[in-house]
């Protein structure tokens, strides 16, 4: 088992950290200059009790309105629980729709689409051998 190397935080490096911190350099840049991670800088600053800095993220008292989106074709496509829900076409195209054939018992798709959706390893393997 090897002994840990010399401390990363020598007096000279602590002085550099304090100077860069007071100059307002970004934490990532300080870490890069000192050859340590951003988290190492944050932890050492906290343990040294250096003054906190204002977050660069500006908060606004104004409420933010969510962006409004145009309804997609999916929103207007009729989805029926007891009909095949296999999507056909591009959801953004006007002719997009679901298959709509009668479903297999306990499945969301018709017989033809179940054959595509539900495969087994042994069936795929025998198809590949044939």
Helices and strands in order, then pairings?
Layout: H1 11-23, H2 27-34, H3 38-48, H4 73-76, E1 87-88, E2 97-98, H5 111-117, H6 121-129
Antiparallel strand pairs: 1-2
Helix pairs in contact: 2-3
Description:
The chain has about 130 residues and is mostly helical. It is built from six helices and two strands, in the order H-H-H-H-E-E-H-H. A two-stranded antiparallel sheet has the order 1-2. It starts with 10 loop residues before the first helix and ends with a helix. The model is unreliable at about 1-5 and about 70-75 (pLDDT under 50).
What is the count of β-strands? Answer: 2
The helix count comes to 6
Rg measurement, Å: 31 Å
* Secondary structural class: mainly alpha
Task: Give the overall shape, derived from the CA principal axes.
Answer: elongated
Quaternary structure state of the chains depicted = single chain
The percentage helix is 40-55%
Topology order in helix (H) and strand (E) letters: HHHHEEHH
Q: Which residues form runs of ≥5 with pLDDT under 50? A: 1-5, 71-76
